[in-house]
């Protein structure tokens, strides 16, 4: 596996959850990591004591912030070898219950932010590939991109768009030395559920009770590191059995899910609201 030492890697959404675990893992592999996040306080806390990692406050849903972020990384490090497009926001709720602001924020962050940051980074990544033999784009997608179920319909649509972008981009740049990867985790133990409903950031000490059920973020970070060190582009479900979510789009399973889940939407709404309330108390 190629060494990650001294590779300049930009990680979005690096202050919490999967992004934070990725920053710590890549820094441990001696990469030069630049992490960004919307909340400067959480970002500073996340990077405390992490050698080889620096932080930049940036909102990836902002076109101005996206341009400034890439320019700053290149200005400070002289190059860009990889981007981990991890920042995302969700809203657990039925479509008719989802506020317009939440819809627009999810699209701007999870899809537009991914596509545009990749676009801005590509000239630098292609230069790195030509000079050093490789560069990487990695998108943290979701198992929700593989099969769409309530109450994550809008979120799933943004992640499916990002996952499709990965497959198309891979066919543009593989022969030019850029590997393009997609990681599709199942449920991960993060603050995703309550933060998507507008809960304010809290300190690490207060975050424990707000975590959703799921696998540890470090398991996802392990696959991110493996992908950035792989000779080939990868699409990896975490855990691997989550790749079975694709079966939800295969007839007649898809029709069965259409009928079964649509009859349970009121129950799904109640369960979702209860889960959020329990973690945002």
UniProtKB/TrEMBL annotation:
MF (Gene Ontology): oxidoreductase activity
Protein name: SDR family oxidoreductase
InterPro entries tied to this protein: KR_dom, NAD(P)-bd_dom_sf, Sc_DH/Rdtase_CS, SDR_fam
Family the entry assigns: Belongs to the short-chain dehydrogenases/reductases (SDR) family.
The keyword Oxidoreductase is annotated on this UniProt entry: yes
UniProt entry keywords in alphabetical sequence: NADP, Oxidoreductase
Enzyme class label: oxidoreductase
EC number from the UniProt entry: 1.-.-.-
Phylogenetic classification of the source organism: Bacteria, Bacillati, Actinomycetota, Actinomycetes, Geodermatophilales
Annotated Ketoreductase domain residues: 7-192
Name of one Pfam family that matches: adh_short
Entries under SMART domains matching the protein: PKS_KR (SM00822)
Top-level taxon in the UniProt lineage: Bacteria
